């Protein structure tokens, strides 16, 4: 009989929404089944939950790190000297049994200054994409909270409440709620830039990046037609992060070294990049952003539909992977400029792969394994609230038919979203978005989602049926399920 182990774990993923919590639950269930004790710290979109104490870590026989955006220097220091098992969070769900069997053989003693190497993970720790996703993860609560408040204000106006801004005297309640909501959109950009820099160079980079990114989006102060937008946050966040990373290596002697991080780095960085932003970077990024906005607003309908097909196909292709995240980041970043139709594609297409797979399982159960049938209801429910990851096990079992079905239906649905003029104010609750005012018009949303699901389900049944017949005829051509 295996000895009882005391385990601790950390889970995080770039967006901090789905994988973080799904893997944590899977680890807890598997540990209990094996008779082990485990405590899992989740680093998700709502912050750190179930935080591991120093005593938890000290008492642990092994540490499991299932991460998608790496660990901060402070986190790495917590596990110095412990036996650590590392795995990409994208690989954890399908290899949950392997994690526990490999603990004695694949764990290594952790050094505080060692990087977290995760092999074939979607977003490699220390990569530019990992830093960008750290910024997006921090900006999400700003745009979600702000978007819901704006939606509530709009709903109140539609119900007949007055809307009066400050220029006309005492502002109305609806105007106040809407204005507070738009603060979320205003600050999502400096927060994004600040957390990109923080991800690269830790705390000394945070304040200068925040202030400079705010400056880059202040049209009044810069005297420009447009703020630098998300492009400014990306450029300045990365530039300041890597500058501070270099700056921190300077040795000033025992007397001045303590002042480096708290005073010298923020002051020098803010001065250099503040001046550069005012005279050069801000106006340049403003012109680029203005050109992009002009292009998006004047793009011919045929080209816009083609771009919408591409975005929808990318979102559905790898279900939370790097291609999905690239398309998601583009659509999400336009919210700050009050361009909502591209993010509506995200709000429809990302629902489809898990819901379609789950529904198809009920319609044609003979095409799916017992394990896939057991997960069908969960895939439908979780998928309906914009977590695409439950579709991954279905795609892994039959990559060619499932990914083809998802990608084709996602692309066509992206075109329908644009054609029907659907808009989405902020991330929300998937199929419930129209009910809380985040997605409109509601009728068009449900119609397009319905059409997309029918297409996706039909393609899954047809393509997987063909795939299964071919597999039965020539099993050597296709990996066993």
Automatic annotation (TrEMBL):
PROSITE patterns linked: PTS_EIIB_TYPE_2, PTS_EIIC_TYPE_2
Return the GO cellular component terms, semicolon-separated.
plasma membrane
Instruction: Give the highest taxon in the source lineage.
Output: Bacteria
So where does this one cross the membrane?
132-153, 173-198, 228-247, 259-281, 342-363, 375-396, 403-422, 442-463
**The protein's Enzyme Commission number:** 2.7.1.202
Q: Where is the PTS EIIC type-2 domain?
A: 128-470
Q: How does it sit in the membrane?
A: Multi-pass membrane protein
Chain ranges of the PTS EIIB type-2 domain: 7-105
- The protein depicted here goes by the name protein-N(pi)-phosphohistidine--D-fructose phosphotransferase
């Amino acid at each position: 009989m295996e000895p009882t182990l005391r385990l601790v774990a950390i889970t995080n993923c770039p967006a901090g929404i789905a994988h973080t919590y799904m893997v944590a639950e899977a680890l807890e269930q598997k540990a209990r089944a094996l008779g082990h004790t485990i405590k899992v710290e989740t680093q998700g979109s709502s912050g750190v939950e179930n935080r591991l104490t120093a005593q938890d870590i000290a008492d642990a026989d092994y540490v499991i790190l299932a991460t998608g955006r790496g660990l901060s220097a402070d986190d790495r220091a917590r596990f110095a000297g412990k036996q650590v098992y590392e795995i990409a969070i994208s690989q954890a769900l399908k290899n949950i049994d392997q994690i526990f069997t490999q603990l004695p053989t694949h764990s290594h003693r952790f050094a505080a200054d060692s990087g977290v190497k995760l092999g074939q993970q979607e977003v490699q720790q220390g990569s530019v994409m990992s830093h960008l996703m750290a910024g997006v993860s921090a900006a999400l609560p700003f745009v979600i909270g702000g978007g819901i408040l704006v939606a509530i204000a709009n709903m109140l106006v539609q119900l007949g409440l007055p809307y009066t801004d400050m220029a006309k005297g005492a502002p109305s309640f609806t105007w106040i709620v809407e204005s507070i909501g738009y603060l979320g959109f205003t600050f999502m950009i400096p927060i994004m830039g600040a957390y990109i820099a923080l991800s690269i160079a830790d705390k000394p980079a945070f304040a200068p990046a925040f202030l400079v990114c705010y400056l880059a989006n202040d049209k009044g102060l810069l005297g420009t037609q447009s703020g630098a937008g998300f492009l400014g946050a990306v450029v300045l966040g990365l530039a300041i992060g890597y500058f501070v990373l270099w700056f921190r290596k300077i040795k000033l002697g025992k007397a001045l070294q303590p002042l480096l991080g708290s005073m010298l780095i923020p002051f020098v960085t803010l001065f250099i990049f503040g001046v550069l932003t005012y005279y050069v970077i801000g106006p340049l990024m403003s012109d680029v952003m203005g050109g992009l906005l002009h292009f998006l607003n004047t793009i011919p309908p045929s080209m816009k539909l083609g771009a919408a097909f591409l975005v929808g196909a990318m979102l559905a292709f790898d279900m939370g992977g790097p291609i999905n995240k690239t398309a998601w980041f583009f659509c999400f970043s336009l919210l700050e400029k009050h361009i909502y139709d591209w993010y509506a594609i995200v709000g429809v297409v990302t629902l489809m792969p898990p819901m379609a797979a789950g529904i198809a399982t009920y319609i044609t159960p003979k095409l799916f394994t017992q394990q896939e049938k057991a997960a069908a209801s969960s895939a439908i429910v979780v998928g309906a609230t914009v977590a695409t990851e439950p579709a991954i096990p279905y795609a892994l079992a039959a990559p060619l038919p499932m990914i083809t079905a998802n990608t084709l239906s996602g692309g066509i649905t992206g075109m329908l979203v644009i054609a029907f003029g659907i808009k989405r104010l902020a991330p929300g609750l998937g199929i419930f978005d129209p009910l809380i005012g985040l997605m409109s018009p509601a009728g068009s949303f449900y119609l397009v989602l319905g059409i997309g699901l029918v297409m996706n389900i039909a393609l899954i049944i047809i393509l997987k049926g063909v795939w299964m017949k071919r597999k039965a005829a020539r099993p050597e051509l296709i990996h066993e399920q």
